[in-house]
What we know:
The chain is an alpha+beta fold. It has five helices and nine strands. It has helices at residues 22-88, 92-123, 129-175, 194-203, 296-299; strands spanning 179-181, 206-214, 222-224, 227-235, 240-247, 250-258, 263-267, 272-282, 285-293. Strands 1-7-8-9-2 form a five-stranded antiparallel β-sheet, covered by helices on one side. The protein has a four-stranded antiparallel β-sheet with strand order 3-4-5-6, with no helix packed on it. A hairpin with a 4-residue loop joins β4 and β5. α1 (22-88) packs parallel to α3 and α2 runs antiparallel to α3. It starts with 21 loop residues before the first helix and ends in a 9-residue tail after the last helix. 11% of the residues are buried.
Amino acid sequence: MFSLKPKEGGTAAPPPPPPITNLLKGGLALALVLILGLGYNAYSTRAALQDQIDILGRQLADQTSQMKSVKKNLTDTASDIDVVRKRVGVTATELDVSRKFAEKLKTEQEQAKQQLAREIETKASTSDVAAVRQEASTKAAEVQQVAETKIGTVSGEVKTVAANLDATRKDLEDSRREITDVKTSLSAQIARNAGELADLRKKGERDYFEFDIAKPKKNEMSRVADIQLQLRRTDAKKAKYDMLIQVDDSRLEKKDRTANEPVQFLVGRDKLRYEIVVNYVDKDRVRGYLSAPKDKVLAAERPQFRPE
């Protein structure tokens, strides 16, 4: 009989490993599949959410671009209002109201954009991305509608001011007077001194305005009644002079005229006849009078009937 006891002084052999059963192998395989499935599901969910956030970000960029366009339109409209104000004289109060209105609209748009960005940033991390996108689109549409309404109001005001500008320009054109040279004499009777001028005044047929004009140093004009005169040159020995006559934007130059010579010209669309007589010619100085119609309606040589 052989004994199973180890020999004294020897080392005992290790026990054999337990056998791996089929059940244990199946459990490990199932656990591995579950881990892989959970990982893939988490990756897919994260990728889908990231795509939705990117789409929402692009939509926000588009809305920001639209708001910048609206802001530019408001800036252009404000510039138009400023131009019209300079041309037709909009009051300081109206200008201040328009400026405050533009600033208020700009502030409202900035606040709406900031609020929209905050709400999207807060809700983008949740699963309700579709609701956030819908809410963003709705608010952007509301902001756009309000901006378009206010821009339409400002545009209407600009059109009104432009219409007033056209009317003012037309009135200026209607009231602008021209000056025309004439060669025929007003009458054979002129005043050569103060006494004769007093006799003409007594008749009461015309208005007479005396003047004493010196040659200017810087091309200044001297106003006499409703016209302006400028002495250009004098020749005291020959009693001759050159005179520039201005009515509004129209000018007429009379050269080489002599003392006590009547100088006639027609003024305005109704052709009112004016007359200048220089009685004394000194060095760089002339003295005389201007004769103008007393009744401009009856004195018109070419009356033009205007609609009321």
